[in-house]
Amino acid sequence: MAGLSQALTPKILDHTTSKAVFSLPTVYLALLVSPGASGTSTLSTMNEVSTGAYPNYARAAVSTSALASAIISGGGLGTNSLAITFPVCGGGGSSPVITGYALVDAASGTTANPTGVLWYGTFSSSMTVNSGNQPSIPASNLNFSLTTSGGSSNFLVEKLIDLTDGKATYTPGGALYAALVTGSPAASQINAATDIIEPSSGQYTGYTRVQIPSASWSSAVVSTGVAGTTLTATVTFPTCTGGGTATITGFALIDGGSTASGSGGNILYWGTLTSQTISINTTPYFNIGGLTINLQ
Q1: DSSP state of 287
Q2: What is the CB neighbour count within 10 angstroms for residue 92?
Q3: Distances, alpha carbon 18 to alpha carbons 76, 154, 165, 220, 233, in Å
Q4: Which of 64, 105, 213, 284 could form a disulfide with 237 if both were Cys (CB 3.0 to 4.6 A apart)?
């Protein structure tokens, strides 16, 4: 399995909150003699095989046609649909042992374009490259996996895998909208209309989703290995003016530019809340720092 680099995760979060655009990268596969212990590897420290050890070595370009569209399988999973082949090893090398790989956005060198290492991982078995060998990674032997267990929807996980491995562009629908949920959200949720239960007018008169503009999110940063962004402004829902009572157990963050109510938009992030009852004259809100989105 491959993990996201820590150079990439904050860029993805900023992309989904519309703070900064992450464009579809042109990607290359690098062979590593050791993938390292974490996703902090850069192009200069990712332990790539050298041309001295493997004469004629070069990173392999990975076309969009060589990648399968991501699917949901125990989380989200992307892979290569075609074999990826490297140059024939020339003479005079030192028979390096290849144990891992990195998906990068630069054809050569140590200058990121602009991220550098995107994904990294280990092979299920190592391979020794001798003179005359031509390494080739068979179809389905690269895996790019993201989990939905941390609060990302299936919809978003598939989009982010395809974006970050260079398969397909994903442009968020604009500012996020916060929705209150009376039934606990789940990782399988994709469409906001059918997959969450919001308060009805009979429970909470005056309820609507509330827009969270990009300026109300902090720029994402990595702390103790986890990328995070948090609210920098209070998000206030309308005051309940009637109805019965609504018991709020969760929330969802929904994309799109016109989804204050109704069936539009896709769930991007979701989570559970300590159960709270909304009754007449109650004004629900998330305080500064009251919502955090994490990605690892």
Answers
A1: -
A2: 9
A3: 22, 19, 20, 11, 16
A4: 284
